[in-house]
Amino acid sequence: MVVQQQDEQVDRGRRVVNWLLGSSLAVLFVSIFYPIVKYLVPPKLAEPMTFSVTLPWKLAELKANSGRIFRFRSLPGLLVKTSGGELRAFSAVCTHLQCTVQYREDRQDIWCACHNGVYDLNGKNISGPPPRPLEPLKLNVRGDQIIVMKG
Amino acid sequence: MTGVRITAWLEERIDLWPLRHFIQKKAIPVHRHTVWYYFGGMTLFLFGIQVATGILLTLYYRPSGEEAYESVQFIMTDVQFGWLVRSIHSWSANLMVLTMMMHLFSVYLTQAYRKPRELTWVTGMLLFGIVLCFGFSGYLLPWNVLSYFATKVGTEIAGQFPLVGQVLMRLLRGGDEVTGATVSRFYGFHIAILPATITVILGLHLFLVQKQGMSIPPAVERAHRGQPLKTMPFVPNFLLRDLFGWFVALGLLAALASLFPWELGQKADPFAPAPAGIRPEWYFVFMFQSLKYIPAKIGPFEGEVLGVLGFSLGGLFLLLVPFLDKRSASGEPSPLFRWIGIGIIAYIVIFTVFGYVAPAMK
């Protein structure tokens, strides 16, 4: 049947055209949405390898058995002066769910109020949900000034 | 076919017949000037690009004196494809003003504003004003030297208005001077107030166009007296031609944004002198240039004030032209208004060219 053959040819031609059109439209959409999706992902901010901050308190004004929160770049840090007079610094970000921890004078430990996580004065997680120790920070005392650096 | 099933599902709940009927019936007149029918849709497409890229830019932009410039710098240098998004936003803004102007003047010269389409023309003129406000407010947001001085001068000119000028200027600046407060304020205009306004008026404009169909130029109507004009169906014939144009525009935008990424320039410094050769965006240049030629004093009046009032009256004339042009309304030829239109176009073109050539000749 000649007519049928012609029909089949038309069908095949139409299929090819449809496929070409569909795939080029797909390429168009991909080329539009790929940059958009990439754009939506926020870039990693380059962190300087060394970073130090001079604390706004003099050595003399810190009491033994006390803790203070300070700004360390964009995150809080915790400065602890133990009852023995030793200075320690940690990131004040709880390793459980990123709450800010505090020093407890009555128990002489570091405590997170959100889920009752407790760290000892070495930053080690000793009870509650925190999975890891607090990140320690390096301390430098120059004369009357306290300088904190990334550990 | 899912499409058929979804339509059937809807059909059972909502009567789609009027919509279907409208789509089938919508036709575009075919004649010598059919080409001008594409510019409104082209402007709409570029507006869509502005909405999409603008929303993306809000994710990283920070509207304050301290952070605006740095955040745009961040978009241009750190964010993946940030340069592309911002450059497309800037280029598309400029092309949109261009296509809008072509749309406006082709509509004017084909006298499509005449009865019964006066409201379409008036809403169109309002859209024109809103788009210029979009351009003016968006230009400041990168907080660079050029945008700082353009805003200073622009708001100063707004301050020349008799009676309301000073209040208007403080309202625009968010204080006595152009500062970070102006940036925050312009951002509010640019992404909230103006978009809300344009949505309503654009909706009205498009509704009226659909309601009344395309206007046929009076000259074509007279030539075809008594004979029906040839038409083409909007779906799919005209729509496909529209899409082709949009596709080309998208390619052009991508090429411009890639080859000529939009400059960021130097950060604004309120204590530095204005750089040489400073001028506003090209679509304000003709006004800027005209103000330079007006003498400082004309009789008892300030030259600037007269200039500002002159342009306001020109805008008012365009806004009200359907009601002034009585001959077009009654279907008669209206050569006077055609020549006024040609005069306005010539004026804008000549003074814009002057704005770019005159400083170079000094």
Give structural notes.
- The complex is a heterodimer of chains A (151) and B (362).
- Chain A is an alpha+beta fold and 151 residues long.
- Chain A contains one helix and ten strands; from the N terminus they run αββββββββββ.
- In chain A, the strands form two sheets. In chain A, strands 1-10-9-4-3-2 form a six-stranded antiparallel β-sheet, with no helix packed on it. In chain A, strands 5-6-7-8 form a four-stranded antiparallel β-sheet, with no helix packed on it.
- Chain A is elongated.
- The mean pLDDT of chain A is 89.
- Chain B is built from 15 helices and four strands.
- In chain B, the strands form two sheets. Chain B has a two-stranded antiparallel ribbon with strand order 1-2.
- Chain B is globular, with a radius of gyration of 23 Å.
- The model of chain B has no long low-confidence stretch (mean pLDDT 93).
- Chain A binds chain B through residues 35-36, 38-43, and chain B through 56, 59-60, 78-82, 84-85.
